[in-house]
User: What shape does this take?
Amino acid sequence: MLFLRKQESRTQKNSVNPCKLVPKVSVSNLDFDSPELKSCLRALKKIDFELAYLALLTAEGLKPLSRWEKPLDSNALGLLEQLTLLTKQIRRTVKTGKEVTETIFSKTPACITLYERRFGDTPIDKSAQTLRFEGYLFGYPPCCIEQYIRRPYTPNNLTPEDQKILFHWACKNCKITPLLLPPYKSIHDSLNHC
Assistant: This one.
């Protein structure tokens, strides 16, 4: 089931909506007044708040592709798909040879394909080349990716609360991260109250 907003004015106020999930800077196609969407988000939150948050950031187009590194069953995959996300489970291996399954999701088939071709059935590695490619697909600012490769977790100018809601470690003088924070905060705060 898709929760697409009917074509109507986006300037209508939803003062009664306790789950105000449309960020002020968003041009969402999701119908956040839909009881079905609210139910879907609550079900995702029961699995893991971070999964629901990551899924919404991706569904809203703030992240081109996301990866979940914990096991997800068919019910969870169905919930992601209800958010208009494409999903794919990718088999990888760790250094010990143990197989792990990552779940990736995106609105864009090309992102799914790029990730699968590059990482499907391969060992997990943290090389600079891998970090750059993953960072690109996950929508991280290039300056933050490069700083992380050179020296991970270098102190930055963000408050701990702001850094906590990001999925990348911001570099000290990033010009892009401050632009991402308002819609990230809006989605995070709304999801907290949903």
User: Anything to note?
Assistant: Residues 35-139 form one domain. The helical segments are 35-47, 49-59, 74-82, 109-119, 128-138, 142-150, 160-164, 177-192. Strands lie at 65-68, 86-93, 99-106, 122-123. The chain has a mean pLDDT of 87.
